[in-house]
C-alpha cells in the first residue's frame, strides 16, 4: 500500500498538464500567424521588427501596457548582454578580446590551468571549460534542484563561480563546446575589471542607455520584483524562478516585451551599446556557422546567415535573432520551457509565413 501511494503521489506531481494558449493580444495579424505554431505554450510574447519598426503580440499577457510590461526570464539570451558588455569594454579601451583570465585576476589565477584563456575564448565557447562547473555538478546539487524544480545555480556567488572556473582543466580547447561556466566567468571578469558587480555593470552600460527600465539581473531571489512570475516545465508543472547568482551573466536576466523591443531594434540598426558584439566574428566553426561575442551567426539553409541566440530555464524559453540582409528580426518569449527555435528560424528564413 505505501508503495502504491508513493507511485500515485509521484504521478500526480509529474503527470503532464495540458497548456491552453492564452488569449491573443496586441498585433492581431502577427498573433494569428504565430498561434498555430504555439501548441503546449501558455503565456507568450512576440516582437517582430521590420524596416526599423516593431510589432508586438501576446498570448495570456493582457493588452497594451500590460503586454509591454509582462515579465519573462530570458535565459541564455542574457549571454548576448554579456557579449555587449565585452564589446563596450573593448570600445572603452579597458580590455581587448585577447585579454586573459590572469590579466584580470592577477595572482588569484596563478597555477590555474585556465590562466591564459582569453575573453574571446570564453565568449565563443571555445575555452575548453565544461558546460557546468565540476564542483557544482559533481555534488548532485544541480540534479536535485532540477527534480525539485528549483534554481540549480543558486548559492554559488560571483567569487565561487570564479573559483570553480579556476579549478577546471580545459578539455577540447579551441573547439566549440557550449559552456554556461565560460560565459558566467566572462561576465564576472568584466565586472572585476570595472571594479563593480555584474548587475550594476549591466544596468549602467547597457540597460540605462537603452531606457530598459524593466530589465534587470536579480542575482538572488531576494531581489526579484513583484512582477516576477514562475514559469512552467514541459509537463506543465510550475517551476522555481531562476536568478542564477554568480552565473547570472550566462542566463539570469529578466525582461519585458517593451524593453526587448528596444534592445532588438537597437542591435539590428547598430545603435545599441556594444552592438559590435553581434558582428565581430571571433570563432569560425564552419562555412555556415560562426560565433561573435556571445552571438551565433548561422546559415539555416536560406543562403543568408541569421544572427541569433536562444535560451531556456526551468520554466521559460526564449529566442532573439535577425537576418542582417533583410533587417527582419524576431524575439519570442514563453513561460513554458518548450523550445521556440524552429518557429523563430522559420519566420526569419521565410518558411513560416506572416
Task: Please summarize what this structure is.
By secondary structure, the protein is α+β, with helices and mostly antiparallel strands.
Account of the protein in words:
The structure is a single chain. This protein is α+β, with helices and mostly antiparallel strands and 354 residues long. The chain has helices at 2-14, 28-34, 65-68, 78-91, 101-105, 119-123, 134-138, 141-147, 158-166, 180-193, 198-210, 257-269, 341-349; strands spanning 24-26, 44-50, 53-59, 72-73, 254-255, 283-286, 289-291, 296-299, 305-312, 317-322, 329-334.
The overall pLDDT average reads 94
- The quaternary structure here is single chain
Strand order of the largest sheet: 1-3-2-11-10-9-8-7-6
The shape is globular
- Counted by DSSP, the helix tally is 13
Radius of gyration: 20 Å
Content-based structural category:
alpha+beta
Percent helix: 25-40%
How many strands in all?
A: 11
Low-pLDDT stretches are 1-12
The sequence of SSEs as H and E is HEHEEHEHHHHHHHHEHEEEEEEH
End-to-end span in angstroms? Answer: 55 Å
Strand proportion, as a percent range, falls in: 5-15%
How is the main sheet built? 9 strands, antiparallel
Secondary structure layout:
Elements: H1 2-14, E1 24-26, H2 28-34, E2 44-50, E3 53-59, H3 65-68, E4 72-73, H4 78-91, H5 101-105, H6 119-123, H7 134-138, H8 141-147, H9 158-166, H10 180-193, H11 198-210, E5 254-255, H12 257-269, E6 283-286, E7 289-291, E8 296-299, E9 305-312, E10 317-322, E11 329-334, H13 341-349
Antiparallel strand pairs: 1-3, 2-3, 2-11, 4-5, 6-7, 7-8, 8-9, 9-10, 10-11
Helix pairs in contact: 4-10, 4-11, 9-10
